[in-house]
């Protein structure tokens, strides 16, 4: 195995480890890792199974999970019977937007906890107040962050791509 092939194989394994640390199956991370570095930028179920040396069943389970989570998409290509998978366009900014919803849920949980503890000691409420203050801050700051990203995205991509040549 060449050094490049070994480095790619290691990247795919590291992607599996990273997603596993975030609660997803290792195979889902390996599938995403393979899809992040493949050329052309999509792979069929058969290609994924061959690349990852895994059963079609495990690849199918991983792709179904990644599809449900909105991380990858399934596409058809003219003249091809197979379905192909690729990372969803705008994946990272879309995942960031989804996190905003999760932050609001956590903020609401802090609010609920404080209502539950109405009339109790400040010591009992302190951790929930810190949680509430943190999410107040994050909810205030993140929209500006997302706007700055969208504005700067084209020039940042262009600059990074130029560095890779």
Can you give me a brief rundown of this structure?
This protein has helices spanning 3-21, 26-37, 45-52, 56-68, 91-116, 122-164; strands spanning 43-44, 72-76, 83-87. The chain is mostly helical. The chain has a 3-stranded antiparallel sheet with strand order 1-3-2.
Structure description:
The protein is mainly alpha-helical and about 160 residues long. It folds into 2 domains: about 5-85, Winged helix-like DNA-binding domain superfamily/Winged helix DNA-binding domain (Arc Repressor Mutant, subunit A, Orthogonal Bundle), CATH 1.10.10.10; about 90-165, Helix Hairpins (Orthogonal Bundle), CATH 1.10.287. Helix content is about 75%, strand content about 5%. It has 6 helices and 3 strands. Strands 1-3-2 form a 3-stranded antiparallel sheet. Helix 1 packs across helix 2, helix 2 (about 25-35) crosses helix 4 (about 55-70) and helix 5 (about 90-115) runs antiparallel to helix 6 (about 120-165).
Distance between the termini: 25 Å
Q: Which ranges are low-confidence, i.e. pLDDT below 50, for 5 or more consecutive residues?
A: none
Beta-strand content estimate: 5-15%
The radius of gyration computed from the alpha-carbon positions, rounded to a whole number of angstroms, is 21 Å
User: What's the CATH architecture of the largest domain?
Assistant: Orthogonal Bundle
CATH class annotation of the largest domain: Mainly Alpha
Secondary structure class reads mainly alpha
Shape type: elongated
What is the helix fraction of residues, given as a range?
over 70%
Number of domain units: 2
Mean pLDDT: 93
């Amino acid at each position: 195995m060449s050094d490049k092939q070994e480095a790619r194989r290691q990247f795919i394994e590291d992607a599996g480890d990273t997603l596993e640390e975030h609660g997803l199956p290792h195979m889902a991370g390996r599938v995403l890792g393979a899809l992040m570095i493949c050329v052309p930028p999509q792979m069929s179920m058969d290609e994924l199974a061959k690349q990852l040396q895994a059963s079609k069943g495990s690849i199918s389970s991983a792709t179904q999970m990644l599809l449900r989570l909105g991380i990858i998409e399934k596409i058809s290509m003219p003249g091809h019977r197979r379905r192909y998978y690729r990372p969803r366009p705008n994946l990272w900014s879309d995942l960031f937007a989804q996190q905003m919803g999760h932050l609001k849920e956590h903020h609401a949980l802090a609010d609920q906890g404080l209502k539950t503890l109405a009339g109790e000691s400040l010591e009992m409420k302190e951790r929930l107040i810190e949680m509430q203050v943190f999410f107040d801050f994050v909810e205030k700051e993140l929209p500006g962050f997302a706007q700055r990203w969208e504005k700067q995205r084209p020039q940042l991509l262009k600059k990074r791509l130029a560095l890779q040549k």
